[in-house]
Write a structure and sequence with these properties.
Elements (H helix, E strand, L loop, with lengths): L3 H14 L12 H8 L3 H13 L3 E4 L3 E4 L6 E4 L2 H7 L5 H4 L4 H6 L6 E11 L4 H5 L6 E11 L8 E7 H4 L16 H7 L5 E11 L3 H7 L7 E10 L4 E10 L3 E4 L8
Helix pairs in contact: 1-3, 2-3
Length: 262
């Protein structure tokens, strides 16, 4: 026999999924809902807590409970890297019209808000072995945030690293004001004669940190996907490392592996 708060949650869940309660719509006050269901306010709050944990509603301080707006879904597949490489030698005007984020989300360039920040850091005991360089080697740390202009949360939290001396031949690659770069990282690297041979994506899942949960606006209990992307050039060198935190409630990772025929 379902508990009273579960029955209330079931009824509200059906109303949300049937569209009787629309995304962004404010629910009646807790006291009114409790009276409607003829239950106590604590019982009603248990029902609302359950719906928040499922990501169906969210509570705004001082305003009440709202049906959670559907966030833009992001589909990342492993063909995106070849797609980006194929664009390197396309005219800049064509590359500037669309990028990997638009490809993954189906949005247009004008739908997006983009932010990039660069700073110089030293390779630590985690990054130095990955790049095959001594600890203390200067790196360029690039932090990216891109979001749908209609939403507050970014699609992911992305931090990319380049070995400074490897890209310093083109000063524009050290300047965040040049972002967004038409064609992305592979186009940037091509300006200093670097061609990528392969990209390794390692995907794991874990609970978010409090800071990640807040910035990505994650429902309680939602995990994040942690992506470590390592790019190798045609000489086998590691030329870029990216750490990307993806929200588990709106990211789909698709891996398609072509198989050789017998």
């Amino acid at each position: 026999m379902p508990k009273a708060y579960e029955q209330i949650a079931d009824d509200l869940r059906r109303a949300i999924r049937a569209g009787r309660l629309q995304p962004g719509e404010r629910l009646p006050a807790e006291t009114k809902l409790a009276a409607h269901y003829r239950r106590s306010v604590p019982t009603l709050r248990d029902a609302l807590r359950l719906l928040r944990e499922e990501g169906l509603i969210e509570k705004e301080h001082g305003r009440g409970n709202f049906v959670r707006r559907i966030r833009t879904r992001v589909v990342r597949d492993n063909s995106r890297h070849q797609w980006e490489k194929d664009r390197v030698h396309q005219p800049e005007q064509r590359r500037a019209r669309t990028g990997a984020t638009e490809r993954d989300t189906g949005l247009e360039l004008q739908d997006l808000v983009f932010h990039a920040a660069y700073r110089e850091v030293e390779a630590d005991g985690r990054l130095a072995p990955a790049f095959g360089v001594p600890v203390g080697t200067p790196l360029i740390e690039r932090t990216y945030r891109t979001r749908n202009a209609a939403e507050n949360a970014p699609f992911n939290l992305s931090t990319s690293y380049l070995v400074r001396d490897m890209v310093a031949g083109n000063p524009a690659l050290l300047d965040a004001d040049q972002e967004p770069w038409p064609g992305g990282t592979q186009s940037q690297l091509s300006t200093v004669g670097i061609e990528l041979d392969r990209i390794e994506d390692r995907l794991t899942a874990r609970p978010p940190t409090p800071e990640e949960a807040a910035e990505l606006e994650l429902p309680p209990g939602t995990s994040v996907l942690r992506l470590r992307k390592t790019s190798y050039d045609t000489d086998g060198r590691v030329v870029e490392i990216s750490d990307v935190t993806l929200p588990g409630d709106r990211t789909e990772a698709v891996f398609t592996t072509p198989l050789e025929r017998w």
